């Protein structure tokens, strides 16, 4: 059985651990709780821990959530990647990913999630339970697709987007980087946005009117 380390930067650790054990492909060698730093962003893991993971020949996966515009999970991902540790995608056993769809580093597809043919998903993006990514849609890196979302065919999401529970994105709709959508919102055309700079991350954030 392949070895796996989990790095916990927020989110439901026990649920993810349960799904990994159900899948049966990986033996969890260790779990590291990442300490919180400034603005709630986790501190980089100790270099000795990363060296141990490399020495064990283990892969790793970073668990996070949608807090702080995904920056908690993203900061951990970047630090661990810089440490030369192999980061893998994971999926719940009940999720469905079409043949030919490549899951990049630290992608998670949750319980009963469906990823249809021709979909492109960027690294460190999470697709939560019961959500569906339609044919030929594109999702950027470090996005959070909340539970019960529907991303229709040919839709495009930029990097660092956050979709709340039950969001519906219509066919061919394009959302720019750093878009944030609330719960149970339906978007049928590419919308105008309000842009501001978040001082915590010096990054643009788009909130839809």
TrEMBL record:
Keyword list, A-Z: Transferase
UniProt cross-references to Pfam families, sorted A to Z: Hexapep
Superkingdom classification of source: Bacteria
Listed GO MF terms: transferase activity
InterPro entries: Hexapep, Trans_hexapeptide_repeat, Trimer_LpxA-like_sf
Regions crossing the membrane: none
Family: Belongs to the transferase hexapeptide repeat family.
Protein name per Swiss-Prot or TrEMBL: Transferase family hexapeptide repeat protein
